[in-house]
Amino acid sequence: MHHIEEKSAVKTLRRVSVAVALGAVLQAQAMFEIPALTGREAIGTTSWRVTDAARPETFAGPGVQRQVEVLAWYPSAARAGGAAAPYLREGLSEVQDFAGLVSAPRTVWDRLADVRTHATLDADPLGGATKFPVLVFSHGYGSLPSAHAALLEDLASHGYAVLSIVHPYESLAATLQDGRVVSLLDEKGAPRQGYFEVVKEWEKEDETMAAVTSAAGEPGDDVQRRLLREYITAIPKTTLALHRWSDDTKLALDTLSSLPPASAAGKLAARLDLTRLGVFGHSMGGVTAGQFCVEDRRCRAGLNLDGIPQSGTMIDTPLNRPFLMVYSARPGRLGANDAIYRRAAKPYIRVDVANTLHLSFIDMIFWSGPLRDRGAFGTIAPDRAAAITRAIVREYFDQTLLGKKSPLLEGKSGFAEVTVK
C-alpha cells in the first residue's frame, strides 16, 4: 500500500549525504505551474470542517471528537478580481514536514507557497439548476492534501464537484475548526505512535506482494487470495485506519445538509447530485475507495490509483459495482489486487501505466529536488503523467456515471504507456 513516499526511495534518501541534499536545494527553487485545465468550465474551490459527535478522536485525548476537513473543487461562474487559491492549502508546514521525513533540507520546497491554482477561492458554484455529479477523493497515508490539485481541479473543469477528504493526524497537515493545523507528527516533530504502528505493519508488504504477483492469473486466484487473506489478517492497525477513513468519507457526505446555506460550501452542497457519486483515491486513499464502496450503496463506481493491497472486507464481500484499478510499473506489484477485484467488481477494469512509479500519479512528479534526484517517479515525463492520469480518471467516471463511452477504456487512448485489461 505504502504511505506517501516510495519505501525504497525513502530508504535511499535517508542515506543521502548532506552535500548531495544541499546541492538539490538550488534545483528545487524553481516553481512549477499546474498544467492548464482541459475542461471548459471556470472553477472555484472552498473548504469546511465537520465533527463526528459519535466518534472519539483516536489521536487526541479524552473528550475530543473526530473532525474532518473537506477541500472542494467545482464549476464556477468566472469572477473578475477573485483571488486564486494557493496551491498549499494547509500552508508551508505541509512541505516542510515532508522534507524532514525524507531527510531533505526543511526549506527545499518552500517556493511551492508561491504557486497558485486555477480556481477562485470561495467562489459561488456555476449558476443554473443543473446539479453536479460528485467525486470523492482520499489522499495516501501520510500524504500531503495539496499534492493532488492538478487532477482534482481538472475534473472540476469538466463539470464534476470534487470533495477531497483530509484525514487528520494521518496526513502531513489538516486544519481543524479552531484553526489549528495538525499533522502525523507530534509536538516534538516525531511521527505519532498511532501512525507509526500502522506503517510498521507493512514491513513484509513487498515480499508478500511479490509472492502474490508471482501467482498471477485466474488459475492462481486461490493462491493469491490465500496470501492476501493472511497478509490482511496480520495488519489489524491498518484495518482500523481503513475503516476510520471510510467513516470520514461517510461523515463528509452525511453532513452536507448542515453546511451554512449562504456560504460557498452550502451553495455547493445544494447543487450536488449524490445519485451520481464516484469514489477514488491514491495509495491508501484508493484502498479506502474500495472499502467505502463495499460499505455504502451511495457509491456508484470506484477507482484506485496504485493502492496495494486492497485490504479491508472486499476480499469476502461482493461489490457488484464498477471498479477500476490503475497500476504503476512498480516491481512486484502488477496485478496484486486482481484476485480480489475480479470476484468483487462488476465490471472490473484494469489499467497499467508503463514507465511510472507510485508517486507518478500525483503533483510531486512536478517537484524538483530530492525526490526526482533519487528516481522516485520512473522515467515518464511530468506533463505526460498528468495527462494520462487526468484522462484515465475522467473518462472512467464519464462512462460509469454519465454514460459517455470512453475511448481510453476501449484501447483508443493515444497513450502508448497505457494498457487496458
**The CATH class:** Alpha Beta
- The number of domains is 1
The best one-word shape is: globular
- State mean pLDDT (0 to 100 scale): 91
H/E element order: HHEEEHEEHEEEHHHHHEHEEHEHHE
- How many whole angstroms does the radius of gyration measure? 20 Å
> Going across the major beta sheet, what is the strand order?
3-4-1-2-6-5-9-10-11-12-13
- How many distinct helices? 13
Structural category is: alpha/beta
Describe the structure in your own words.
The chain is α/β, with parallel strands linked by helices and 421 residues long. The chain contains 13 helices and 13 strands. The protein has one domain: Alpha/Beta hydrolase fold, catalytic domain (Rossmann fold). Helix content is 32%, strand content 19%. The strands form 2 sheets. It has an 11-stranded mixed sheet with strand order 3-4-1-2-6-5-9-10-11-12-13, with helices on both faces. It has a two-stranded antiparallel ribbon with strand order 7-8. The longest helix has 21 residues. The N terminus is likely disordered.
